[in-house]
């Protein structure tokens, strides 16, 4: 049996590598951010509409996310050890 990786998985790995190797001032589109956060672009759109989620920049019609804002957002997320901990965040 040979090693096989789907085109979508390779594309996601490429986007993750691009994000990881970029400087903190780099800007990314929502497709890259969706790969980084393991979510859909539709969720990112809903979060923007609701005023939640990662801060973004709008240039014309283009929505972009700064890497430093993404990293800050991720650091501020609550961490749970299990689903029974959802009422309280784990201190780290």
From TrEMBL:
SUPFAM superfamilies: Putative DNA-binding domain. This is Helix-turn-helix domain. It comes from Legionella feeleii.
């Amino acid at each position: 049996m040979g090693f096989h990786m789907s085109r979508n998985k390779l594309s996601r790995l490429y986007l993750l590598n691009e994000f990881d190797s970029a400087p903190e001032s780099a800007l990314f589109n929502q497709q890259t951010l969706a790969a980084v956060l393991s979510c859909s672009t539709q969720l990112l759109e809903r979060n923007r509409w609701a005023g939640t989620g990662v801060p973004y920049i709008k240039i014309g019609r283009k929505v972009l996310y700064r890497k430093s804002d993404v990293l800050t957002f991720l650091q501020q997320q609550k961490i749970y050890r299990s689903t029974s901990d959802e009422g309280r965040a784990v201190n780290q």
